[in-house]
Each structure stands twice: as C-alpha cells, then as structure tokens.
Amino acid sequence: MKKILILLLLLPAFSFAQNHEANIKKIFDAELSQGHTYENLRYLTKNIGHRLAGSPSAAAAVEWTRQLMESYGFDTVYLQPVMVPHWVRGGKDIVRITNSEKHGSVELTALALGNTQGTGPGGLIGEVIEVKSLEELRNLGTKTQGKIIFLNGVMDPTKIDTFEAYSGAVGLRGAGASEASKLGAKGVVIRSVTNRIDDVPHTGNQRYNSDYPKIPAIAISTQAAELLSKLLSEQPNLKLYLESHGQMLEDKLSFNVIGEIRGSEIPGEIIAVGGHLDSWDVGEGAHDDGGGCMQGIEVLRLYKELGWKPKRTIRAVMWMNEENGLRGGQEYARVAKEKGEKHIAAIESDSGAFLPLGFSSTGTEEQRAKLLSWKPYFLPYQIWNLDRPGGGADIGPLRDQGLILIGLKPDSQKYFNYHHTAADVFEAVDQRELELGAAAMAALVYLLEQEGI
Predict the structure, then answer these.
(1) How far apart are the first and last CA of the chain?
(2) What pLDDT was estimated at residue 7?
(3) Same domain, 150 and 285
(4) How confident is the model at residue 18 (pLDDT cuts 50, 70, 90)?
(5) Cα separations (Å) of 356 from 151, 186, 325, 349?
(6) Structural domain total, the chain
(7) Is CB count within 10 Å lower at the N or C end of the chain?
(8) Distance between CA 61 and CA 48 in Å, rounded?
(9) Average pLDDT, the chain
C-alpha cells in the first residue's frame, strides 16, 4: 500500500516532465523543419547590411524588425526611443611602414577602432615603440613622447574558451589610446583581437579618457602585426604613417525594437529574449549580432506557430548600440525600473550563430540551481553545459532587479575569425546551427514561462 501511495504522489511530477519533453520536441521539430530564422537573417544582412548605431542602415533595421514582428501577430510591438552615439569612419584607414631597409614602403591592412578621432587627410608620421601590455606601456614613461605605440598583445592560445582569451587581450583595445596619450604618444596601432593569424583587421570599441588628448587608434591584422614586430626587431628606428578620418558627431535618436506575447496567467512576470540590432560598419553583422536578433524573434514566432499562449509574458528585444555605447541596454533597464516591471529572466544571444552547447547564467544560487535542474531536457539535443557563469552585455544593466541573466553559449572556436570584421557575412552562418540555437532559446523560454525560476 505504501509503495502504491508513493507512486501516486510521483505520478503528477512524472507526467509534468513528460509534457515538457514532448513540447520541447515540438519546438525543435518546428524550427528545424520550417523555421524562419535563417531567411530572416538573410534579409537583414543582404538587404540592410551593416548597422552601426546612428546610421541610415541602423534606422532601416529598426523599421524592418518592427514590421517583421507585426507581421507575425505578436500581441504588442513597439519602439523604445534611445539617444545613441553617432560615429562615422569617414574614409579609408591607412597604416604604412615608410622606411623599411628591407622593403621600403609597406602597406599594412588596417581598420580604425570605433569612436576614435581620426588624423584627418594630412595623416601623421612617427617612430614606433612596441609593447605587449598596458603595464609595459606605463613603464616606458617619457620614452613615448611624440611616438606611435604599437600595442601587440595576443589572445592566449592555450585558453579553450576563446571568450576568456578575448577578455585577457581586449583591454589594450579599450584603454590603450588614452594610456598612450597620457604619456605623450601621438597615435596607437593595435594588433587585432583575434586568435587567428590572417590578413583581416578587426575593429571594435575604444574609450577615451577625457583628461587626455584624443589620439588616433587603428587596428592592423594579426599577419600585419607579426610582420611589423619582426621588422621592428631588426630595425628599431622604423616609422609609420597613419591616416584615418573618424569623427564623433552629435547623438542621434534611435530605438530598441520590442515585441511581446502577454502571459495568460502571470502577465506581470516578464522573460526578455534577444540580441543587439546594431553592428560595426564593416561586414554584415551576421554573427554579431544579426543571428541573435533573429533567434530572439523566432522564439515568439514559434509560440504563434504552435498555437501556444505562455503563462508569463515573453518579450523579444532588439537592443540598439551595444557595440559602441550600450545605450539600448541601459535605457531598457531604466524604463523597466521606472515602470516597475518585474523581469524574472533575460536571455541574450551574442556569442555567434554557431552550434549551441549550453547556457551561461548570473543569478542567485537558487535560480542557477533551477536552471541546472532542466539539463535533462536539453541533453537529447546535445546541449549539455548549463553551469557556467555569464550573461550578456545588453541584459547586464538589469542585474540589480533580481532576475537571472542568461547567455546562449555556442561553440566559440571560430567566433573570433569573424568578430568585428568584413568577414562577418551571411555566408559565414550555418543554417542548422543557427536554427538549433533558436530552438534552444525557445525551449528555455518555455521552461521559464511554465515554471518560473
């Protein structure tokens, strides 16, 4: 009798789990057989292209994603105004060795960093000093006066997690120009932040310290950096000519694009899911982060296709200006707090549209334990890693509101081949991997809206 009673008590939980398994399979089956994610990404990248905040193409992306979500019949679709920085590249970026005893004049493949002040058409010329770290730069003291600093820091190839390697190297890009300017340098050249040796330069954001002059900052490809380092070791008096035309113009009005399906039972609890709509002004922003945006929209579209009504409100958010300001994420969090909205979770896909391996998260021990308890539902889809810390840049400003922050974690080994480059195009995205990521996000949203966290 006692055994029968225990079985009767366990039966509802068993049925509940079976129901989840069946519904998650429906999500994956629908996405992998008739998903819209890939074709939507094709339109975004091929018809609109790169989408730097403040640009006409960013404005076009805002309007198209609004219309796309309206066409799917989401309960509410709206634009959230946000003022964004407006930086323009303005012309071709040039880095040239002028006095090599072996090669004479040598052009190095280059791309100015975002938000930088250009040299103008006259360019500048100077002797070069190579450093591998900010500490090494600071130890040079007055030796940097009037020089061009070559910041030749590398991503650690022994780090299996390429984002960990990126974090260890990207500080040179972000702070190098101001640190060099503080010491009297007149320009910086930085090795592209990637773990691949090739001739593709990577742009990215850098931040000026307002206490020091704004000096030009230009990235060169890793192949060019290897050559420059070699020639400097043989000829310390090497000179570079730099030319760039970047300008920071007045802030412009842009928008976060938001679509939602309202919860049927607990509408006041919100789950946000999406990516950042802006990209750099080279390539097409396919991996960074067009894929994440289209995956976020697809989560809600799958609910409409399957005829489901969530218990809690789910919201697709296309954040604007992650790349060179994070204004969209900050404004979204500010408005949510002002309105007294209660987010229980936010999920961001901004690590490339590659094969999904799991999710990272930041939250309380209880929240993260609940997330980890759902691992068995994902194992049939070879999604296994749910215990890593992390989240996402755009959802980070929501942190103090008590929700769990979650990042989709795909296989990152190839991500930094494309990150912030002209190579980040639609053709670099695999349809099945993109769709598996969309289905994984939809499955997690399903568990969150059904069970809470």
Answers:
(1) 35
(2) 46
(3) no
(4) confident
(5) 33, 44, 27, 10
(6) 2
(7) N
(8) 7
(9) 95
